[in-house]
Amino acid sequence: MRGMPTFRQMEYFLMAANCGSFRIAAERLHMTQPPLSRQIKELENILGGPLFTRSKAGVQLTSRGMAFHKEVPLLRKQFLEIQKKMDAFSLGEKCNWNIGFTSVHSPNIFNQIRKFLTDKLGSDSVSFTYGYSKKLSDLVSKKKLDLAIIGTPSPIPEFDYKLLHLVTERMYVAISKSHILSSKEEISLIDLKNEHLFWFQRNENKEYYDKCEYFFLSRGFNMKRKHDPGDNHILLSLISAGEGFSIVPHSITLNERSNLAYIPLVEKESEELSIKIQIIYRADIDFNNAKLITDIHRVHSGINN
User: Where does this protein have coiled-coil stretches (predicted)?
Assistant: First the structure.
C-alpha cells in the first residue's frame, strides 16, 4: 500500500496544473518552490508514476496527470463534505445554529462571515436573523439566538453576557450630490447647522441616542430633525432627492447611488459618534461554541474601514 494522497497534495497539484509552472504555483500559494516540488513528487510516488513532464518552459500534465486531474475536483468535494461533518462533531454535534446580524449596518459588511458560517456548518444547519441590536440582544438572552453581531452602544437586557469587539466604524455624512457641500473631503456637523438631519427615535436605542444628543448639545450642534424611516433604502432615496442628510457608519457607504455622496466626518466628531460592531453571546457558552466565536472573530478581523 503506497498510502493515500493528502488534501494539501491535491491542492498543490491543481495549482501547478492550472499555472503550468511550479514556480508560479508556489508564488500563488505563498510558499517557496522546493516544498511544493517535494509534495508533488510524493503524490507521484503514491499514484505510481509521473503526473507532469518538466522542462525549462514549465510543466505539462502527462496522460496519468490528465486522468488524475479529472478526478481531483470530485475527491476535493468529498473531502470537504467529510471535513464539514467532522466540524459539526467538534462543535458539539449541534445541528442548527441561529445567528443574528444588526440591520443598521450594510449587510455587505457581513458577507465574509455569512459565507464562512455556511461553508463550515452547511447551509441547512445555519439560519440568519436581521434586526435592531436591541432585538437581537433580547433574542440571545432568551436563547433564541446562539450569538449576534450588534452595534454598540445599544440597550442590552439583564443577563450574563460577553461582548467581543470586531471593528469600530468611522462615521460619514450621507448627502445629496446636488448639495453645495457634497464635494468636501471631510465635513463637520457645524457645516450642516441649517440642514435637516434624518434621525431615529430615542426608544429605538436610548443609549446611543443619549450619547449623540449629549455630544450635539455640548458642541452647539442644533440641526433640524426629520424622522428616520427605519429602512436604509428609503432613507438613502430621500437623501438623494435632497430632503436632508444623515450620519451613517462606513458600511452604509457601500450602497452607491447616482445622486448620493458620502463624506467622512472630521475625526474627532466621528470618534464621538462611532459605532462599535461586537459579538454578543451568553457567558455560559460551552467550549465548542466559543471556538466558533473565535473563528468568526478571525474571519471578521480582515474588515477595514
Answer: none
